Amino acid sequence: MKPTLLYFFGKVQKMKAAGEKVLGFTLTTPEFPPPAFLEQEVAKVYEDSFPYLPSGGDFVFRQQLADFYSTKWKRKFKEENVFVGTGGKEILYILLTLLLKKPEGEIVVISPYWATYPNMVELLKGKIKIVKALAKDDFYPDMDKIAKAITSKTRAVIITSPNNPTGKVIKEKDVKFLADLAKKKDFVLICDEVYEIYNYDNLYVSALKYFNKNVFCVFSASKTYSLCGWRLGWSVGDKDIIKEMIGIQSEATTSPNSIAQLAFRNLFKDTKRLETYFAENMARGKERRDLAVAAFKKAGVEYAHPEGCIAIFVKIPKEFDNAYDFCTELLKKEKISMAPGEIFGEKKYFRMNLAVSITNLKEGLRRVLKYYGN
Ligand SMILES: Cc1ncc(COP(=O)(O)O)c(C=O)c1O
After folding, report:
1. For the whole model, what pTM was predicted?
2. Distance in angstroms (rounded) separating the CA atoms of residues 29 and 114
């Protein structure tokens, strides 16, 4: 099993427990406030939140999500197209469990990748096929290479847009190309769009715009609403796939927690209020993206230009052979924790979470830039 982010994060937790002051940039946990109106919505649903809710998610909430994404991407989704899970992670795990039920299945993953994809495929005894996006292309994936990686055993291609860790956003023409390819070659295009609102250069288009029965999109309350601990995510896909996923969830966890789903049911009654909140978070993210980009650019450091997401993927100084060593040194000497690129399949880069306070971000940048001769 490959090392996970939580392994590195665990080291930070230990240092903190020992009384050391560490500035954390390891996980892409947005340290932005959740919607201010959330607290009152939680209070309203408290009394109703004790029983189980149906597997696949509360029916009203699923319908609200179907309406929300139908309006947003001008398609017609129904409640049966929506599946609610315990975070995007549970949704991906259940979907991959289903797709890898038939033996010898291959899953195409693009590197740099969010580490959980290959780890999940490995756990589920599937075969991982990595398609490398290259630094010379600013880590934008090559569509021809993806198309060439498809075989009769391909069960899914996973794309992440906006991407974690690189911040790249898949262009609309490529989203359409992949959605069409999925239908033609009969694999599932899994589109991890959990960073949907962090779209700084106005490039993001959901694959829902080109929806067909082979397209499956994943979203999350963790990133969009800064509610990582609530463990709530949702997805839109083919109703037959979702029916089978409900069967798996029903045996695994029954359903995601009731209080979060019921509070969200209230939030989705007023989507205008939500759009205002998204715009505020987007502005927070963009301010930090601009600040980090300016600092690395000024210092002549190589990085992938983040068009979205809440992180930046940066080349390690040439004195270091690999990002593990560099991040270990940063942690030991500078008391800042970054995510080493090995975890994402790219050992010469590290990832820095940008969704922290401006003060901490500036301080983190100051400490890391010392290593680039500044
Ligand atoms: C690309 C990506 N997908 C999915 C997730 C899972 O999010 P959650 O399970 O908290 O909804 C994360 C979390 O870091 C992520 O970065």
Report:
1. 0.95
2. 14
